[in-house]
Design goal:
Elements lengths: L1 E2 L11 E2 L16 E2 L26 E2 L12 E7 L8 E6 L4 E5 L9 E2 L12 E3 L8 E3 L1 E2 L6 E3 L7 E7 L2 E5 L5 E5 L3 E4 L15 H6 L57 E3 L13
Antiparallel strand pairs: 1-2, 3-4, 5-6, 5-8, 6-7, 9-16, 10-13, 10-16, 11-12, 13-14, 14-15, 15-17
């Protein structure tokens, strides 16, 4: 971690990632980046559907490969790079047939390391193979939910899922949220845990740094008026005045409450619900 000198009060506790230790280049491959307008929490009508998003530094999007459709062709990591759109590091994979793609890197993989996407690949970091070929108690990331589908689970910095059991046509996977989920065993996953595991230790330090990241201010519910929030109103400072926490729209929130949609389509695949509140752990522990 990088610790700054306390030249100001906001700087006193600020920390950051020492990127010079990990990154090998600061210039992305031109053919693998693209621009565009970000949604910043708006829908196709331009109306805010997710609050507190917008602004931030201008970004170039990296075309990161989450499908991994190049099978049985070895690749070498040519560089380790920063991606402003994600917390983990990405690497430039140079395939043996000459093609280059960006991939999400696991912890411990450096320039010169090799990987392969194959159903007969050895169980080594960055290699990708079907869930049915991965031994129990192995940490995986970039987990797909269907055969040939894109990687959807365990993609944030330091995160990993854990193969808990093999049963019939399904693999039981423990996610970073502690939820245990059934995934069809012909779906693919990569071996290891996502790089930049120190990311959760970063202390933002000041409001302006959040704005650089595209995070807009949040107003507390208890500071609002009664028409605007269930916690609003009252003379002076008030508590929420309710037994259970709720959102601005009256939906359950906070520790200890179930917030998942009761009739969600994927409920049938959940073996064990995630732990909430202080009991919650991570799959890496």
């Amino acid at each position: 971690m990088k610790i700054y000198k306390p030249t100001t009060q906001s700087r006193r506790h600020m920390t950051g990632i020492n990127y010079r230790e990990f990154l090998t280049t600061s210039t992305p491959v031109k053919s693998l980046v693209f621009g565009g307008k970000r949604s910043v929490g708006r829908n196709n009508y331009g109306r805010i559907t997710v609050r507190h998003q917008g602004g931030g530094h201008k970004r170039l999007m990296r075309a990161v490969d989450f499908v991994y459709d190049k099978r049985d062709i070895p690749a070498r990591i040519a560089s380790v790079e920063y991606d402003p759109s994600r917390s983990g590091f990405i690497g430039l994979a140079a395939y043996a047939d000459g093609e280059k793609r960006y991939v999400l890197l696991p912890h411990g993989v450096k320039v010169g390391s090799t990987f392969i996407v194959s159903d007969k690949a050895p169980v080594l970091p960055a290699n990708r193979l079907p869930l049915k070929a991965i031994p129990v108690d192995t940490f995986v990331y970039n987990v797909a939910l269907r055969p040939g589908g894109p990687a959807l689970l365990a993609r944030s910095a330091g995160n990993a899922a854990k193969v808990k059991a093999q049963e019939g046509n399904y693999t039981f996977v423990e996610l970073p949220s502690t939820e245990v989920r059934k995934v069809i065993n012909t779906a693919w996953a990569s071996i290891g845990a996502v790089s930049n595991e120190e990311n959760h230790l970063v202390v933002i330090g000041k409001a302006g740094r959040s704005r650089w990241l595209g995070v807009r201010p949040t107003v507390r519910g208890s500071a609002q008026n009664p028409p605007d929030h269930p916690y609003g109103g009252g003379e002076g400072r008030q508590g929420r005045g309710l037994r259970r926490a709720k959102t601005r729209w009256g939906k359950p929130s906070g520790k200890g409450q179930k917030t998942r949609t009761p009739k969600k389509y994927s409920n049938v695949f959940i073996v064990s619900r995630r732990k909430v509140g202080s009991k919650r752990g991570t799959a890496l522990h």
